[in-house]
Design goal:
This protein has 385 residues and is of the alpha/beta class. 30% of the residues lie in helices and 15% in strands. Strand 9, helix 11 and strand 10 form a beta-alpha-beta unit. It is globular, with a radius of gyration of 21 Å. The structure holds nicotinamide-adenine-dinucleotide (NAD). Its main location: cytoplasm. It is an enzyme of class 1 (oxidoreductase).
């Protein structure tokens, strides 16, 4: 029997379960392109429930315990006395979410002698040291597409919020009890007519491009895989052979590539200097793709007009992380991919993967990042080690 160690974000401060705003969520059975949503043999929660936090347990307990497995769920993931550190040495499976990542460092992987499967309840498995997973023959899988559309909606929201100066204007009428139209509009622009680009045009990046098309903007992208010509034509896309050319061409840049050896620290002082004065960056991919302090410097001297997103490093960030107080930011905690709709899909996807694993059936190719000691499936297409 297996021990499944699951690291999830803490419960809401007002207790669990919360009072839900809606009674149901839309039923979605497939994604753009035809991939089906997860197909587990059963489900022990109601879609729309908060299952991503500790008490929600991804709805896994009845299923795992009925099969005789042990489920440990915790949000304590840092420090030598944390539950994660204590339970890791004899865990067979680790489940973690990018929103509250259990960083599986080379050292932790070395000490996790029984670990054979690491599941990302969401998308983006950079919190697992992939070279170590490869070396130790650990399968790494994630729930591809489960929250891609959720994130694309957020990216569009961050773009509009930054360009229209939404958060400062909101603050004028709420926290500051004012009616300061001139103060609010002095940084309020239209996105119409702007050059908008995505770095990484995979599932999320392409969905962002599709959603922005009706805004009458000029769309650009850079990706190691060029999109089909008819799609470029349909969306009026300009493809850039390298990210530097993309960065220099756009007013707004939305980042959607995974974090790996070729994307780490890409947007540093030098890259930011190539962008037009007054550019905006939205980052819902991973914080380490940008240089934390270079972003702060660019905002402070007015080279960047705004920076928004939901990804930080580390997560959760320190109380004095400079992105909490930098000017012209639109930051949230890591929430884009954890909507209640997305949770229903990634929790179902985790269950599907576990069913396959315990029943010796193959895991869907599109869910795989590492298998058999090498990058596999989506991992082979989107990551490098
Ligand atoms: P995807 O695999 O469908 O797309 C990633 C794209 O990036 C691919 O087309 C790939 O070719 C491209 N790419 C990789 N390296 C590149 C490079 N060096 N230069 C240019 N392009 C490159 O993944 P996705 O579903 O679109 O997700 C993208 C990332 O978004 C995830 O890896 C994750 O880090 C992040 N994400 C964040 C949240 C959130 O809640 N904020 C949720 C889901 C995913």
């Amino acid at each position: 029997m297996a021990k499944i160690l699951t690291v999830l974000y803490p419960d809401p401060v007002d207790g669990y379960p919360p009072r839900y705003a809606r009674d149901e969520i839309p039923v979605i059975s497939s994604y753009p392109g035809g991939q089906t949503t997860p197909t587990p043999q059963g489900l022990d929660f109601k879609p729309g429930e908060l299952v991503g936090c500790v008490s929600g347990e991804l709805g896994l307990r009845p299923f795992l315990e009925s099969r005789g497995h042990t489920l440990v769920v915790t949000s304590e993931k840092e420090g030598p006395d944390s539950v994660l550190e204590r339970e890791l040495p004899d865990a067979d499976v680790v489940i973690s979410q990018p929103f509250w990542p259990a960083y599986l460092t080379p050292d932790r992987i070395r000490r996790a002698e029984r670990l054979k499967l690491s599941i990302t309840a969401g998308i983006g498995s950079d919190h697992v040291d992939l070279p170590s997973a490869i070396e130790h023959d650990i399968t790494v899988a994630e729930i591809t597409y489960s929250n891609s559309i959720s994130v694309s909606e957020h990216a569009v929201m961050y773009i509009l919020a930054l360009i229209h100066n939404y958060l400062p204007a909101h603050e004028w009428v709420t926290t500051r009890r004012g009616w300061n139209v001139a103060d609010s509009v002095s940084r309020n622009y239209d996105v119409e007519g702007m050059d908008v680009g995505v770095f990484g045009a995979g599932r999320i990046g392409l969905a962002v491009l599709r959603r922005l098309k009706p805004f009458d903007v000029k769309l650009h992208y850079n990706d190691v895989h060029r999109l089909p010509q008819d799609l470029e034509k349909e969306l009026g896309l300009t493809w850039h052979e390298d990210v530097r050319s993309l960065a220099a061409a756009v007013d707004v840049l939305s980042i959607h590539a995974p974090l790996h050896a070729k994307t780490v620290n890409l947007f540093n002082d030098e890259m930011l200097a190539t962008m037009k004065r007054g550019s905006y960056i939205v980052n819902t991919a991973r914080a380490l793709i940008v240089d934390r302090d270079a972003v702060v410097r660019a905002l402070e001297r007015g080279h960047l007009a705004g920076y928004a997103g939901d990804v930080w490093y580390p997560e959760p960030p320190e109380d004095d992380h400079p992105w909490r107080t930098m000017p012209h930011e639109g930051m949230t905690p890591h929430v884009a991919g954890s909507t209640l709709s997305a949770q229903a899909r990634y929790a179902a996807g985790v269950r599907e993967i576990l069913e396959c694993w315990f029943d010796n059936r193959p895991i869907r190719q599109e869910y795989l990042i590492v298998e058999g000691g090498r990058l596999a499936g989506t991992g082979a297409r989107s990551y490098t080690v």
